[in-house]
């Protein structure tokens, strides 16, 4: 396999990673999986849980003086946004046989395999998806190729994230995403993936017809690839809220919430009391 998939987690998102991991395994994705833990608690728990089909990395061991200083000045989720290009770059440097890397947020859940579609795209160095409700790029899913343009674009993105990566809007920026919007001004081969099954989310699902047949989810009559459950937070071991006005309903949300409940139970079986951290 020459493809890798990676994500970044903290102890607050470990139940969502376990849901993501389950969806990757169920869809039999032919990709190496890397998980970067930004705190020791998440790293130790995953090791204890025996996650066998992923490389689990304690990110603190990769931090240099610059990253240590950035961690001190930014909120933990801002820091996770900041290091997206760092972890992609790390995989490229450490694993010469990997030619393509897909970064996904931990609150993504796959309903079918994205690689069958990614592998059909002929000319690209970077693949991005927009919010669909706007033309702005969403940073929850981005792919880089090991070629001249892809590696240069990755380094550029890293520099921008080091300079500015915060949870408010400023001069077209928000987190890591505004920088991605400017990639096409600097580089060729930035491919905007318009497949309706990619990056379905609360902010765009009203644009589609979502139906389920035999536990397969369809978006406008094509298979849903993944749903991005941004804004969904568990407030205890069974209940949840949305951080903005949106009413979760239908099979997609029902299935995901049930999976999260199951993952919280699995965590508690291994480390009683651990999930109390999630709900603070």
Describe it for me?
There is one protein chain. This protein has one domain: Spore Coat Polysaccharide Biosynthesis Protein SpsA, Chain A (Alpha-Beta Complex), CATH 3.90.550. The chain is globular and about 45 Å long. The protein has ten helices and 15 strands. The strands form four sheets. The chain has a seven-stranded mixed beta sheet with strand order 3-2-1-4-7-6-8. A hairpin with a 2-residue loop joins strand 11 and strand 12. It is 36% helix and 22% strand. It has 280 residues and is of the alpha/beta class. It comes from Lutispora thermophila DSM 19022. This is Nucleotide-diphospho-sugar transferase.
In short:
The protein has one domain: Spore Coat Polysaccharide Biosynthesis Protein SpsA, Chain A (Alpha-Beta Complex). The protein is 36% helix and 22% strand. The protein has ten helices and 15 strands.
């Amino acid at each position: 396999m020459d493809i890798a998939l990676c994500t970044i987690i903290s102890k607050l998102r470990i139940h969502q990673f376990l849901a993501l991991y389950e969806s990757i395994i169920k869809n039999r994705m032919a990709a190496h999986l890397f998980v970067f833990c930004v705190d020791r608690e998440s790293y130790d728990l995953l090791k204890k849980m025996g996650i066998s089909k992923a490389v689990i990395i304690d990110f603190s061991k990769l931090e240099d003086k610059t990253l240590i200083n950035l961690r001190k000045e930014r909120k933990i989720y801002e820091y996770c946004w900041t290091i997206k290009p760092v972890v992609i770059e790390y995989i490229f440097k450490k694993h010469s046989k990997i030619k393509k890397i897909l970064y996904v947020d931990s609150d993504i859940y796959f309903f079918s395999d994205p690689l069958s579609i990614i592998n059909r795209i002929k000319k690209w160095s970077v693949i991005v998806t927009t919010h669909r409700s706007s033309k702005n790029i969403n940073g929850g899913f981005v792919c880089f190729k090991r070629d001249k343009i892809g590696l240069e674009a990755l380094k550029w993105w890293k520099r921008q994230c080091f300079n500015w990566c915060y949870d408010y809007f400023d001069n077209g920026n928000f987190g890591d995403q505004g920088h991605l919007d400017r990639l096409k001004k600097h580089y060729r081969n930035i491919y905007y993936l318009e497949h309706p099954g990619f990056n379905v989310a609360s902010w765009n699902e009203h644009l589609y017809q979502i139906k389920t047949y035999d536990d397969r989810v369809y978006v406008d009559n094509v298979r849903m690839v993944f749903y991005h459950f941004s804004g969904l937070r568990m407030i205890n071991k069974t209940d949840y809220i949305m951080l903005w006005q949106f009413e979760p309903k239908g099979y997609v949300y029902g299935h995901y919430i049930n999976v999260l409940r199951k993952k919280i139970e699995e965590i508690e079986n291994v480390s009683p009391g651990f999930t109390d951290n999630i709900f603070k």
